[in-house]
Amino acid sequence: MSILAGRLADHDEAVSPFGEAASPLRDRLIDAAVEIMTSRGWARVTMSRLADDVGVSRQTVYNEIGTKNDLAEAMVMRELDRFLAGVTRSFDENPGDLINAIRASARRVLKYAKNNALLHAVVSATHGADTELLPLLTTHSEYLLEGAKAVVTERVASYELDLPDGRLDASIDMVVRLVLSHVMQPSADPARTGDDIAWIAERVLR
After folding, report:
1. What DSSP line would sit under 12-52, residue for residue?
2. Distance in angstroms (rounded) separating the CA atoms of residues 39 and 203
3. Which of 32, 42, 30, 68 is nearest to 129 (CA)?
4. Average pLDDT over residues 150-154
5. How far is it, in rounded angstroms, from Cα 66 to Cα 86?
6. Which CATH code fits 3-205?
7. What is the pLDDT of residues 52-64, one digit of tens each?
8. What pLDDT, on the 0 to 100 scale, is given for residue 188?
9. What would the 3-class secondary structure string for the chain be?
């Protein structure tokens, strides 16, 4: 089973705020790797540098993380899981109002993404990313899109909607892609953009 299929098959676990249960040391190592990658590039991320930055031995880094490819996977999946956790939380906070749930989701996602260089790289898959990371980011950009659509589709099922057959999936796809486009190229602050997206969604979904 692919990583994407596995995540979507059990996305309630996947969208927890920090992904799979992680030790404090693992989170510190991932934080250090993200800092190095976004400020100096992926090529400068080494297990020795992580060990020095966090104050542990290199063997401890390998024991906790695995290979450098495993590290890249952990970095990307943690950001995507946090992204999807924000969407889930926004819908859970607005159980009786679909448009407010979409507004809150868009605002929360755009605020989280505003200064998140790694998330920007995943959304764009190729824009500004290290060549070595491109295959990983491209694969996970698919998870981001499909994962967001899966979360929204599940939550929308609890709202009463009167749409023709097949139109709901198309509407959800449109809203998700609209939010992701603003992640990459924001046109206003998150609150204003959230209002605009909610306005569009209201006219499509009702």
Report:
1. HHHTSTTSS---HHHHHHHHHHHHHHHHH-GGG--HHHHHH
2. 42
3. 42
4. 92
5. 28
6. 1.10.357.10
7. 999 999 999 999 9
8. 93
9. CCHHHHHHHCHHHHCCCCCCCCCHHHHHHHHHHHHHHHHHCHHHCCHHHHHHHHCCCHHHHHHHHCCHHHHHHHHHHHHHHHHHHHHHHHHHCCCCCHHHHHHHHHHHHHHHHCCCHHHHHHHHCCCCCCHHHHHHHHHHHHHHHHHHHHHHHHHHCCCCCCCCCCHHHHHHHHHHHHHHHHHHCCCCCHHHHHHHHHHHHHHHHC
What six digits make up the tokens of 199? Answer: 């306005």
Per-residue pLDDT of 30-77, as tens digits, reads: 999 988 887 888 888 999 999 999 999 999 999 999 999 899 889 888
- Give percent of the chain above pLDDT 90: 46
**The pLDDT value given to residue 48:** 95
Q: Where do the structural domains in the chain lie, given as residue ranges? A: 3-205
d(CA 191, CA 109): 11
Q: In this structure, what token pair is assigned to residue 48?
A: 């020795």
